[in-house]
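Weekly modeling sync, notes
Attendees: AB, CL, MP (scribe)

Item 1: holo prediction request
CL wants a bound-state model with 2-phosphoglycolic acid before deciding which constructs to order. AB pointed out that an apo prediction alone won't tell us much about the pocket. Agreed to run with the ligand included and paste results into these notes for async review.

Input as submitted:
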Amino acid sequence: MGKLLVFNWKMNPATLKESLALAKISDQKNIVVAPPFIFTEEVGRVLKKAKLGAQDLFWEAGGAFTGEISPRELKNLGVRYVILGHSERRHKLGETDDMIEKKIKAAAESGLMPILCVGETKKEKAAGERDWILRRQLSIDLPGKLLVAYEPVWAIGTGEPESPEEAVKAINFISRLLTKKRKKFKVLYGGSVNSLNLKNYLQYKEVAGALVGGASLKKEQIKKLIKLCQK
Ligand code: PGA
C-alpha cells in the first residue's frame, strides 16, 4: 500500500474556481484533500479517487453555536477525515487539549477519522521538552483508531523541516505511547514538506505519510508529491 498524503489548504484558495482546479489535479488514491469549509461540497463532487477531509469541526451535534460546523454536517457532505488540534489553532486561536479531546471524540463518534496534530515549539525543542510535550498532547482521551501528524510547530510554513532522523525519533516516541494505550494508529510527518524532501521521510517504515500545507496549493508540486507517495 502507498503512503497517505493529506493536503491541508488552510484558508486558501480564495475562490471556488481555484479550489476545483486544485482538486482535479489532487484527485488520486492515497490523497486526502482538506479544503476550506465553504468549498467542501463542491470539492467533494470533483474527488473520485482522493478522499475528502476537513480542517476542523465543533464537538456538538447541532444547536445554537454561531459560526461552528458539526461532525454530522461534515459527514453529510462526504467528509471522511478531519484534521484536529493543528498548531495554528492551538497557538493562534487558543485551542486547548481539553477542546481537542472533545473534538476528537465527536469526530470518532460520527465515523470521521481524526488526524490529531501534535508537536513542540522551537523553545520547547531547545529546552529538550519535545517528548514531554508530545506525551501531554497525547494524554487526552483518544478513540480506538486514529491518525496522528507529528508536526513541529517551528517547521510549519517556514521552509525549515525537521530532519527525517529526528522526525522518526519523535514518531517512534508517539508510537510507543499509543501502543501502550492499545490504539490502532498511523503517524504522518508534517512541516515544510515538498516534492524535494518528501522521499526522505517516506523511506522510513515508521512514517505512514505526510501532512502537506503550502506545497499542496502548487500544481507542479502536487503532481510530484502524488508520484512519490504512490511509489
Ligand atoms: P506546511 O504546513 O507544509 O506549509 O509547512 C503543514 C501543515 O500546517 O500542516
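Recorded for review: The CA atoms of residues 3 and 229 lie 5 Å apart.
Action items: CL to compare against the apo run; MP to circulate these notes.
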